[in-house]
UniProtKB/TrEMBL annotation:
Keyword line: ATP-binding, Cell membrane, Membrane, Nucleotide-binding, Transmembrane, Transmembrane helix, Transport
SUPFAM superfamilies: P-loop containing nucleoside triphosphate hydrolases (SSF52540)
Name recorded for this polypeptide: Amino acid/amide ABC transporter membrane protein 2, HAAT family /amino acid/amide ABC transporter ATP-binding protein 1, HAAT family
Cross-referenced Pfam families: ABC_tran, BCA_ABC_TP_C, BPD_transp_2
Length: 612
C-alpha cells in the first residue's frame, strides 16, 4: 500500500521516466563522450539513491553501503566473465562457477539477490544499534568487506585489477537501472514500511508506542538499499570492464554521501539534486585542476581542487541548508499538496473490551532513587482515572512502566488475562493501550495526516487504517490541518494531533500525560469536552496525568495521588480534596522548602486549586 496521494506518485514516476529518457536522448545527440558521462552519472545516481533508501528513511548515516556495491560488482562479474578467462586467471574457482557464463541481466539479478542476503545478515545486527553506534558499525562493514575482497584472492584476484569483465553497460542499461532505482526508492518511501521507518527516524519512542517495530523496518530498508547498491555495482563493473577493491572504498563512499547530504537525505528529489550539483561542480573543477589562465594570469595547478570544492559545498549546505538543497519534501509534495479530506468523516468505533488494567506493586529504581515505590492501580474502559502529585513524584515514570517504555524494577501489570511485563514496547498497543507524552512527541517532519495514519497502519493489522485516521483527526478537530507538517503547529494543536494519533490505534485505554500543558483556558475546556466524549460515547478508559487540578477535578471519576514515588491517596475528587495527606503533600505543611500558604489571599494556592 502506498500512503501518499496517487497524484503525487503519478507525477513523481512520470518525471523520473521523462527526465531520464529525455536526458539519454539528448546525450545521444552529442555523441559517445556525452553518453559515457551520462552513463556514469546514472550509475552514480543509483548508488546515491541506494544509500538514501536506508540513510534517508532511517536517519542513520551509512558508510557501509558502498561495500554492497562492491559485492554486486564482483558477484555479477564472476557470472559474466568468459569461462576461458576464468579458467586461465582464477584456476581455483569451483567448477560450477568457472563454467558459468551468463548475460548482464541474469547476473545482475543474482548479484542483487546475493547482496540482499548478505545485507539481511549484517542488517539484523546493525538494526538494533542507535545513533552514532549504528553509523560507526556501517564503517566497520565497509572495512570488513574491503578486507574480505582483498583477502579472497582465489575468487577476486585480491588487490589486483579484476579485468576482462564484458563491457555490457551502455546508456540504455543505465537508463533502465536508474529508472528502476528511482521508482523503487520513491515507492518505498511512501510505502507502509517506509512511512513507519520515517516515523521512527523522527521519534523512536513515539513510533514504538503506536506499534512500529523499528528494528524490523530498518532491516527491510537496509536489505532493499543493499540490493539497489548491488545494481549500481553490477552496472559500474560492466561499464568499466576492470576494477579493483579500491573502487568500492572510502573515495566513492565520500562522494556518494556528499551528494546525498548536499541534496537532502530524506527525499528522492534531494538525491537527484545532490548528484547533479556535485557532478557538475566536480566536472568543472577537474578541468581546472591542471592549472588555467584567466585574464592573462596563469593559475598554477592545485592538487585536490575537486575534493576541496566538494568539501566547500558540504560546508555551504550545512550552514545554509542543513536539510539539503531540496529540503524535506519531494517536489511533487510541494506542487500537489495533500488536501484536507472533504465530506463527512467516519466515526470512531465504540470499545467492546471490558478488561481492566491491573498494576500491582509497581516499583522503579534509578540507581539510588526509587522514583515509583510499590504503587498499585486499576483502570477500566469507560472511566477516567486522574493521576496527580507534585513535581518529581513519579507520575510519568509510572506511565512509562505501564506503556512498556520502562521495564519495572518490581511489580506486575496485567491486562485481562495477559501479563504486560516483558511485552516489547511496540506490542503494548496490541493490548489496547495507547498514549501521549509529557514532552510532545510528534513526527515533526511528517504531515499531520501521516502522523495519524502511521499509527492506524501499525495497529489492528492496518485494517481500515485510512478511515480510522480520518475519524481520529475529525474527533480532535484537526482534520483541516491534515496536510500541514506536524512540527509547524501551535502547542495546542500538536497536543490534539498527538491524542488523535493515539486514538487512531483504536485503543480501549488511553494514557494522557499532561494533555492540557501549553493550552489556554478555552482550549482546555474544549479538550475536557472531547475527553468526556471519548469515555461517554466510545467507552474508552483514560489515565490522565495533569497539574491542572481544575481539569482533573471536573473530569475524573477517581483520582490517585503520588508523593515521592508512593501512592498516598485514592478516591473520588471529593475524597481527595479533603484528604489530609494530599493537602500536606501539596502544601508541604511543616516541611522546609515547600509553600505553607499562598503568597497573598487572591492568589490561588494549591489548596484552592485542589478545591477545583
Ligand atoms: N530515566 C530516568 N533516569 C533517572 N531518573 C529518572 C528518570 N526518569 C525520571 N527520573 C527521576 O524519577 C523521579 C520521578 O520523575 P517523574 O518524571 O516520573 O515525575 P513526575 O511526577 O512525572 O514529575 P513532573 O510532574 O515534573 O512531570 C524524578 O526524581 C526524576 O528525576
Amino acid at each position: 500500500m502506498i500512503t501518499s496521494p496517487r497524484l503525487q506518485i503519478f507525477a513523481a514516476i512520470s518525471a523520473i521516466v521523462v527526465g531520464v529518457v529525455g536526458a539519454a536522448l539528448i546525450a545521444s545527440m552529442f555523441g559517445a563522450a556525452a553518453e559515457r558521462i551520462l552513463t556514469v552519472f546514472f550509475i552514480t545516481l543509483v548508488g546515491v539513491v541506494g544509500i538514501g533508501i536506508y540513510s534517508g528513511n532511517s536517519g542513520i548515516l551509512s558508510f557501509g553501503h558502498v561495500a554492497f556495491m562492491g559485492i554486486g560488482a564482483y558477484v555479477s562479474a564472476l557470472l559474466t566473465l568468459p569461462a576461458q578467462l576464468k579458467v586461465a586467471t582464477l584456476p581455483k574457482l569451483p567448477d560450477w562457477l568457472a563454467t558459468t557464463e551468463m548475460g548482464l541481466l541474469p547476473a545482475t539479478v543474482i548479484a542483487m539477490g546475493v547482496t540482499a542476503l548478505v545485507a539481511l545478515l549484517v542488517g539484523a545486527a546493525i538494526g538494533r544499534l542507535e545513533g552514532s553506534a549504528a553509523t560507526i558499525s556501517t564503517l566497520g562493514l565497509l572495512i570488513i568487506v574491503h578486507g574480505v575482497i582483498i583477502g579472497w584472492r582465489d575468487v577476486t584476484r585480491g588487490a589486483q585489477s579484476f579485468f576482462g569483465v564484458p563491457r555490457e553497460t551502455g546508456i540504455w542499461a543505465a537508463v533502465i537501472g536508474v529508472i528502476l532505482a528511482l521508482v523503487l526508492a520513491r515507492l518505498y518511501r511512501d510505502s507502509r514500511s517506509g512511512l513507519r521507518l520515517r516515523a521512527g527516524r523522527e521519534n523512536a519512542i513515539a513510533a514504538t508506542a503506536v506499534g512500529v517495530n523499528i528494528p524490523r523496518e530498518r532491516l527491510i530498508s537496509f536489505v532493499l538499499a543493499g540490493a539497489v547498491m548491488a545494481l549500481a555495482g553490477a552496472l559500474l563493473g560492466h561499464f568499466l570492464g576492470a576494477f579493483s577493491p579500491k573502487k568500492f572504498f572510502f573515495n566513492d563512499t565520500f562522494l556518494l554521501l556528499a551528494m546525498l547530504i548536499v541534496g537532502g537525505m530524506t527525499t528522492i528529489t534531494g538525491a537527484v539534486t545532490g548528484a547533479v550539483v556535485i557532478t557538475l561542480v566536480t566536472e568543472f573543477l577537474r578541468r581546472l585542476e591542471g592549472g588555467f589562465s584567466i585574464a592573462g594570469f596563469d593559475v598554477p595547478s592545485v592538487f585536490g581542487t575537486t575534493q576541496i570544492g566538494i568539501g566547500l559545498i558540504i560546508l555551504y549546505a550545512m550552514f545554509r541548508k542543513a536539510d539539503g538543497l531540496a529540503g524535506l519534501k519531494e517536489w511533487e509534495e510541494r506542487v500537489f499538496p495533500k488536501r484536507p479530506p472533504s465530506g463527512s468523516a467516519p466515526a470512531l468505533q465504540e470499545v467492546h473490551v471490558s478488561d481492566s488494567l491491573t498494576a500491582s506493586n509497581m516499583t522503579m529504581q534509578f540507581g539510588g532513587l526509587v522514583a515509583v515505590n510499590d504503587v498499585s492501580l486499576t483502570l477500566t474502559p469507560g472511566e477516567i482515572l486522574g493521576l496527580i502529585g507534585p513535581n518529581g513524584s513519579g507520575k510519568t515514570t509510572l506511565l512509562n512502566m505501564l506503556s512498556g517504555v520502562l521495564r519495572p524494577s518490581k511489580g506486575a501489570a496485567i491486562r485481562g488475562q495477559n501479563k504486560l511485563n516483558g511485552v516489547p514496547a511496540h506490542k503494548i498497543v496490541e493490548h489496547g493501550i495507547a498514549r501521549t507524552f509529557q514532552n510532545i512527541r510528534l513526527f515533526p517532519d511528517l504531515s499531520v495526516h501521516q502522523n495519524v495514519l502511521v499509527a492506524a497502519l501499525s495497529t489492528h493489522g492496518g485494517e481500515d487504517a485510512d478511515s480510522r485516521a480520518r475519524a481520529a483527526l475529525a474527533r480532535l478537530n484537526v482534520a483541516q490541518l491534515a496536510g500541514e507538517s506536524a512540527g509547524t503547529l501551535s502547542y495546542g494543536d500538536q497536543r490534539r494531533v498527538e491524542i488523535a494519533r493515539a486514538l487512531a490505534c483504536r485503543p480501549s485505554l488511553l494514557f494522557l500525560d499532561e494533555p492540557a500543558a501549553g493550552m489556554n483556558r478555552l482550549e482546555t475546556d474544549a479538550l475536557m469536552d472531547t475527553l468526556r466524549g471519548l469515555t461517554r460515547d466510545l467507552g474508552i478508559g483514560i489515565l490522565l496525568v495533569d497539574h491542572d487540578l481544575t481539569l482533573i477535578n471536573q473530569l475524573c471519576d477517581r483520582i490517585i495521588v503520588l508523593n515521592e514515588g508512593r501512592l498516598i491517596a485514592e478516591g473520588t475528587p471529593d475524597d481527595i480534596r479533603q484528604d489530609p495527606a494530599v493537602i500536606e503533600a501539596y502544601l508541604g505543611r511543616g516541611k522546609p522548602g515547600k509553600k505553607t500558604k499562598p503568597k497573598n489571599r487572591d492568589e490561588p494556592g494549591p489548596a484552592t486549586e485542589l478545591a477545583g
